[in-house]
Design goal:
Blueprint: H1 4-9, H2 30-39, H3 42-46, H4 49-63, E1 67-69, H5 76-80, E2 85-88, E3 92-95, H6 101-105, H7 114-130, E4 136-142, H8 144-153, H9 161-169, H10 171-195, E5 199-204, H11 212-233, E6 239-243, H12 253-257, E7 261-263, H13 270-276, E8 282-287, H14 291-294, H15 296-309, E9 315-319, H16 329-340
Parallel strand pairs: 1-4, 4-5, 5-6, 6-7, 7-8, 8-9
Antiparallel strand pairs: 2-3
This protein binds coproporphyrinogen III.
Coproporphyrinogen III is lined by residues 22-27, 36, 42, 69, 71-75, 92-93, 140, 156, 203, 205, 322.
Domain Uroporphyrinogen decarboxylase (URO-D): 18-27, 138-154
EC number: 4.1.1.37
GO molecular function, one term: uroporphyrinogen decarboxylase activity
């Protein structure tokens, strides 16, 4: 019996889609908050293989999701390339900034990342032993553009202004940064696959802010390079790409990048995606995360509408973005029940 997620990613149309949620291990779960308190802070949790494996398993135990996603963060890679990284409680990540070509040149070579990231690989090895036989394990990284926006600004930004300004001021240095992240991401994800990740997801959370030529150069091209390199080293490894808020540019994204599945945010309708994106292969998504806070009849109706709209082709049920800390675990259970009974 092949795992449900792997069947959908291979292009199979299933009567019930596999289900998992972005940020399924997170602050909406009391058991996550307890383990995080035990670890101390968020980064200590990411770098503690036993505790990171434990929080990865918590939502699987509670809800029986079809996939587990490695507990880590997209910002561990910049740290392994030499950036300082810390998290300010209630605010989010902070990094040392890159402001010019010299800052790019000062980064470590891509091949130097593994010492720092070894605990992540160990977390994966623990999970391959402890996950139920039917649960697929997803490894991940940020896509280069999204990672670069944090490395340049030193924090999350509403419009990615500092990264756009860097790109406008020195496109060669900006491209060198994208290339360094791309090379390091191939090595990082390859090591995750060697440790036991069965699926890879690339998070391009800020893809939507790229203009059309930049979208080709900095969302599509690096994603295509990473996927080609991974598939050359690990034939058949399925990849989910998430160019968040790509809008009409979701059309053809899988073909342009070689991704096996495109993850949809909740700004596009499932009916539109069935007609224009699922024609190319598997799609993932795309319930608005707010329903996990509000619940009720609207949650059930929306989850079932999405499930039915995408039932004619390969589909992985998920939210359009990460579940938020205010969400209720009861609503997660109701979502799963709604999808499976649609
Ligand atoms: O999805 C999962 O359950 C797996 C683990 C995971 C985390 N972050 C854990 C996390 C994954 C896949 C990510 C990806 C990630 N990290 C992205 C891309 C997806 C997206 O949300 O757009 C981005 C942009 C980051 C960077 C990041 N990490 C930010 C901006 C923040 C602060 C915002 C917030 O939600 O607190 C984080 C922190 C973070 N990463 C938390 C978790 C569970 C919360 C930290 C805590 O416990 O205090």
């Amino acid at each position: 019996m092949t795992k449900l997620l792997l069947r959908a990613l291979a292009g199979e149309t299933l009567p019930t889609p596999p289900i998992w949620m972005m940020r399924q291990a997170g602050r909406y779960l009391p058991e996550y908050r307890a383990t995080r308190a035990q670890a101390g802070d968020f980064l200590s949790l990411c770098y503690n293989p036993d505790l990171a494996a434990e929080v990865t398993l918590q939502p699987i135990r509670r809800f029986g999701f079809d996939a587990a996603i490695l507990f880590a963060d997209i910002l561990l890679l910049p740290q392994a390339l030499g950036a300082d990284l810390w998290f300010v409680t209630g605010e989010g990540p902070r990094l040392s900034t890159i402001t010019d070509a010299a800052g790019v040149a000062a980064l470590k070579p891509a091949g130097d990342i593994h010492d720092r990231l070894a605990p992540v690989y160990e977390t994966i090895r623990i999970l391959t032993r402890e996950l139920p036989a039917e649960t697929a394990l997803i490894g991940f990284a940020g896509a280069p553009w999204t990672v670069a926006t944090y490395m340049i600004a030193g924090r999350g930004t509403p419009d990615q202004g500092p990264a756009h300004a860097f790109k406008a001021a020195d496109r060669a240095a900006f491209s060198a940064l994208i290339d360094r992240i791309t090379e390091a991401t191939v090595l990082y994800l390859s090591a995750q696959i060697e440790a036991g990740a069965e699926v890879i997801k690339l998070f391009d959370s800020w893809a939507g802010s790229l203009g059309s030529a930049d979208f080709d150069d900095f969302a599509i091209a690096p994603t295509r390079r990473i996927i080609a390199a991974l598939k050359a080293r690990h034939p058949g490894i399925p990849v989910i790409a998430f160019p968040r808020e790509a809008g009409g540019r979701y059309v053809g994204f899988a073909r342009a990048t070689g991704a096996d599945c495109v993850a949809l945010d909740n700004s596009v309708s499932a009916e539109w995606a069935a007609a224009h994106v699922q024609t190319d292969g598997c799609v993932q998504g795309n319930l608005a995360p707010r329903h996990m806070v509000t619940g009720g009849a609207e949650l059930v109706a929306e989850a079932q509408r999405i499930t039915r709209a995408l039932r004619g082709g390969p589909h992985v049920f998920n939210l359009g973005h990460g579940i938020t800390p205010e969400a209720s675990p009861d609503n997660v259970a109701a979502m799963i029940e709604a999808v499976r009974s649609a």
